[in-house]
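Backbone geometry:
***
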Amino acid sequence: MPPQFYRLFILQIVIFAVLARLLAPVEFGKVAIAGIFVDLATGLAALGTGQSLVQQRELTEHHIRAAFSISLVAGFSQPLLSQ
């Protein structure tokens, strides 16, 4: 895995440790649940539509429109899932 993955992972642990000390347990639980939804939405947004376009031997307008639509829906659903 790339080094930035480890840095991000360590940063998330530090942030959650600080929040756990600053927030009440109920509030921290809400933050943790919201974090799960944000991670889920981020994973959905990175479905790999760009990579699928690169791998197509013959790229058609249909492929481009489908990839764009999937990316657009995933991008707009991310803030909705994180509320």
The radius of gyration is 17 Å. The chain has a mean pLDDT of 83.
